[in-house]
Amino acid sequence: QVQLVESGGGSVQAGGSLRLSCAASGSTYSSNCLGWFRQAPGKEREEVAAIYTSGGSTYYADSVRGRFTISQDNARNTVYLQMNSLKPEDTAMYYCAARGGGVCLLFGRRLWERGDAYKYWGQGTQVTVSS
């Protein structure tokens, strides 16, 4: 059964850090593009970062590049999102998503940015950053 389970959300003051985890079932994790998305109240869902688990290529939205780091632990089938220098505008529900066995970038097409390119979604974890 495919599962994506997020954890690690919480409340933090601006400038602080949090680390989100996304534990995936084996078939979902291997040779797949796993991404993080977020959605704030009243706003559209936006991509945050993604990683291709076979090789470890990473991708970031401009809004988080240099502050967030996506990484993987193959032994645990887990993808992490380390979030540093958090800002109030980072407040959102964060979702982990997995493609159905596909790459993040294909012939220049930034598939990792497209929510409809992902087949599986986690339940989300809330991140709240206060000023």
Envelope shape: globular
Percentage of residues in DSSP E strands: over 45%
Q: How would you classify the helix and strand content by structural class?
A: mainly beta
The total of beta strands comes to: 11
Radius of gyration: 14 Å
| Count of DSSP H/I helices | 1
What is the rounded distance between the termini? 40 Å
Model regions low in confidence, pLDDT < 50 over at least 5 residues: none
Could you give a short description of this structure?
The chain is built from one helix and eleven strands; from the N terminus they run βββαββββββββ. By secondary structure, it is mainly β.
Describe the structure.
- The chain is mainly β and 131 residues long.
- Helices cover 3% and strands 45% of the residues.
- The chain is built from 1 helix and 11 strands; from the N terminus they run βββαββββββββ.
- It has one helix at residues 26-29, and strands at residues 4-7, 10-13, 18-24, 33-39, 46-52, 58-60, 68-73, 78-83, 92-98, 120-121, 125-130.
- Strands 2, 4, 5, 6, 9, 10 and 11 form a 7-stranded mixed β-sheet that branches. The protein has a 4-stranded antiparallel β-sheet with strand order 1-3-8-7.
- The chain is globular, with a radius of gyration of 14 Å.
- The N and C termini lie far apart (40 Å).
- The model has no long low-confidence stretch (mean pLDDT 95).
